[in-house]
Design a protein that fits this description.
The protein contains 4 helices and 5 strands. It has a 5-stranded antiparallel beta sheet, covered by helices on one side. Strand 3 and strand 4 form a beta hairpin. Helix 2 runs antiparallel to helix 3 and helix 2 packs antiparallel against helix 4. The longest helix is centred in the N-terminal third of the chain and has 56 residues. The two termini are 21 Å apart.
Length: 171
């Protein structure tokens, strides 16, 4: 390989150096964009899942207060319209599970024990816990579990697009 490089003219060596530097620059820029896109998308997922949990909590406060479990299940069933939501639960103030809904297409771990308010990424899912309140008093907790395949698909598509772009530019 070194002999091949030595036999190149100065002009071809300069072109090779420019191509290598351009490719390296594109790889660095693509990596930076991927990291930024990944972080932005995760923040967006957290925000939308938290908002969804807040909406479910707002709708569930009266049925939970008046022990209307069929209404709680109906509210949770409406989450079937959300593609990424795979499970949702409502717990009362003691931490007892009052309503649960999950999509049938997936084999899932059981719902977790009640935690304090928060959002976390674990086990390939986004877990959201939100307090449920009525007249300023905490009466329960809403839990929403979202799947993250859209995140993985976005990364795959970006990597394919970046590779194609790099090949086209370097040709």
């Amino acid at each position: 390989m070194i002999r091949w490089l030595r036999n190149l003219s100065i002009r071809h060596k300069a072109v090779l150096v420019v191509l290598l530097l351009s490719g390296f620059g594109l790889a660095i820029a693509g990596t930076a964009f991927l990291v930024h896109e990944n972080m932005t998308h995760r923040a967006s997922l957290r925000s939308s899942a938290s908002t969804l949990a807040d909406i479910v909590g707002y709708q569930s406060s009266a049925p939970l207060t008046f022990d209307d479990e069929s209404e709680l299940e109906r509210i949770l069933k409406s989450l079937d319209l959300e593609q990424d939501v795979v499970m949702a639960c409502i717990y009362d103030e003691t931490g007892a599970l009052r309503a649960r809904h999950e999509k049938k297409r997936l084999q899932q771990p059981p719902p977790p024990a009640v935690k304090t308010e928060g959002v976390e990424l674990a086990e390939g899912f986004l877990h959201v816990f939100r307090p449920l309140s009525y007249d300023g008093e905490v009466i329960g907790t809403v839990y929403v579990r979202s799947d993250l395949p859209s995140q993985n698909e976005r990364v795959k598509l970006f990597m394919i697009a970046a590779a194609v772009l790099l090949v086209v530019i370097l040709l």
